[in-house]
Amino acid sequence: MAGTTGMAAQNIDEVVDGLAEIVREATDTGDRVGYFAALYRQVTVEIRKAIHAGQFEDGPRMDRFDTLFGNRYFAAYDAWRRDRSGPRCWRETFGLLDDSDTVIVQHLVLGVNAHINLDLAVAAAGTSPGADIHALQHDYLLVNDILAGVVLVLEDSVGAVSPLLSLLDKVGGRTDEEILDFSVVQSRQEAWYNTVLLAGQTEAQREVTIERLDVRAAVLARLIARPGLLVRPALELIRHTESGDVAAVIAHLDGAMERGSAGRGTG
What we know:
It comes from Streptomyces prunicolor. It holds the Pfam family DUF5995. This is DUF5995 family protein. The chain has one domain (12-261). The N and C termini lie far apart (38 Å). Helix content is 73%, strand content 0%. The protein is built from 11 helices and no strands.
C-alpha cells in the first residue's frame, strides 16, 4: 500500500488508503507519526468529498494534484523509515517523533510546515506546468477554505487531549488556532508564488528552487521544535498536562471530523 511499501498512489483514493494505513500502524505501535497522518487523512477525505460534489472547476485535475501531493509525503516517509534520508525539512520533522518533550501541536505544525512549505508548490507545479498553472489557481484557493474548516475542528480536538494548549494564547500574542493555522493562510499564499515560479522554470532551475524551499522549511522546523524563551515555560506546562497515550491521541485526532459532523448534525 502507498506509504508503507514505497509504492506510489495512483489516485486520491489510494492516498486516503495509504494515510489510513500509516495511522493504523502508528496507533498499533504508539508512533507519533500518526498525529500528522491523522490530520492529513482528514484533509484528504474532505478534498475528495469536494471533488465528488463538483465543487472544483476541474475534479480530475484536483485528483491528480492531490495524488502528487500525497506521494511526496509517502516518499519522505518511506525514505525516513528506510535509511533516515529524504528532504531536510522532513528529516527535521520525523527526527522529533521519539522526542517526548515535543508537544502534540508541535508535531502537527512540523508536518504542516514541511508539507506546505516544500511539497505543495512542487506538486502543484507538477500538476499544471508552464502557462497552464494559472488555470489551477481557483481550485488551489478553494482548498484553503477546506483546510480552514478542518483546522477549526481540529483545534477543539487537540484542546481535548492537550487541555493547557490555550496557554499559548497568553504568550507571544498567538492563539492555539493561529499556531495550527499558520500554514493554511500565510504559507499557502507564499506556496502559490513558488508554484508559479516552479511551473515556469527549467529542470535545472527547479532543482535549485526546490533546494532553497527545503532549506527554508528545515530552518522553520527547527524554530517550531525549539521556540523562543518566552514560549518555553508554556510548552513545559502543556507537556506535563496533555495526554501521553500516543495511540489514544492518534485515535482522537483521527476522529475529529466525524465528531464535528455528528455535532453539527445534532446541534
